Amino acid sequence: MLPLERQNRILEILAVRKAASVEELCRELYSSGATIRRDLAYLESSGLLCRTHGGAVRMEESGRDFPLLLRESENTVSKDIIARKALELIEDGQTIFMDASSTVCRLAEKLSGFQRLRVITNGLKTAGILAEKDGVEVYCTGGRLRGNAKSFVGLPAVSFVEKFHADTAFFSCRGVSEEAGVTDASEEEADLKRTYLRHARRGVLLADCSKLSLQYFCRICALDEIDTLVSDIPLSPPYVLPSAPETATK
Could you tell me the pTM of the whole model? Predict the structure, then answer.
């Protein structure tokens, strides 16, 4: 098991149990005590857990953001399914907003064979992926770089987005629920995503099933403020939106 896979598995275990001992993690992950302790030290330094005597406990996640590197290795099959569905919503000649999320990065990887696409993004990695694509003109917001998230945020990023209008805004989130709407862990990311929505004719949320019914600290928008929710599973109310194309719910 690669270190990143093992670290993600530790977080999954703590998400269910809230706490686990080093001995338990060694047994479940077939790893040595030294290896698990190194993983716990790294995850604690990233603000993702709190080490205790002989183990670790889950940190409160509602106000915390996860490093892009960790998010990229989560639910990879689901993200591929979502990216393929979202691809059907893009046509030649369109202008689109793309955020810095790992799911939108997966969509960016699939943007091949298009002509005259314009993409505005605050994602450092998203921009790098798109720079290699023929037929795609890339605009990067600039602003303050959030190192772990590989995203540009702040007033300069918001002001840059406000100069443009797009056909579609593709964005993700940390949680989505009927009561709280679409939420994120970062106030700055949420602010930028709201700006994307205000300046796009259509808002498309990409969210795998693990994010449904979750609520995080910062509200992006209400469910009825987006046009389409693309997920990896068939959706049922309240997540089926009136304007959602059939491809988004299959």
Answer: 0.72
